[in-house]
Amino acid sequence: QVQVVESGGGLVQAGDSLRLSCAASTRTFTRYLMGWFRQAPGKEREFVAAITWAGATDYGDSVKGRFTISRDNAKKMVYLQMNSLKPEDTAVYYCAASSTTWTVVDANYDYWGQGTQVTVSS
Prior knowledge:
Layout: E1 3-7, E2 10-13, E3 18-25, E4 33-39, E5 46-51, E6 57-59, E7 67-72, E8 77-82, E9 91-98, E10 111-112, E11 116-121
Parallel strand pairs: 2-11
Antiparallel strand pairs: 1-3, 3-8, 4-5, 4-9, 5-6, 7-8, 9-10, 9-11
């Protein structure tokens, strides 16, 4: 089993930056694909970013060029650096782990954090 806990959300102004952190509890952290998803009120969960054990990354179209995902396998941590935040980035952000080699589908992620709220005001 894997437990993930994300933190770092908050209330910021448009154009500001924010860094989210995700701590994973697993002996085989490097074997998991790690991803970030977000969900705004009344909307479905949206893929934000993912990173493989080797560091390969991909991003959702809406955040490309603004967000950066990274991981520290030694510390069993995953991060999401969010720059140039927009009001439409407002959502609950979730960290998740998947045993799949690569996927951007939320249903393919096996373990989820509790979520952290990010609110961006105009």
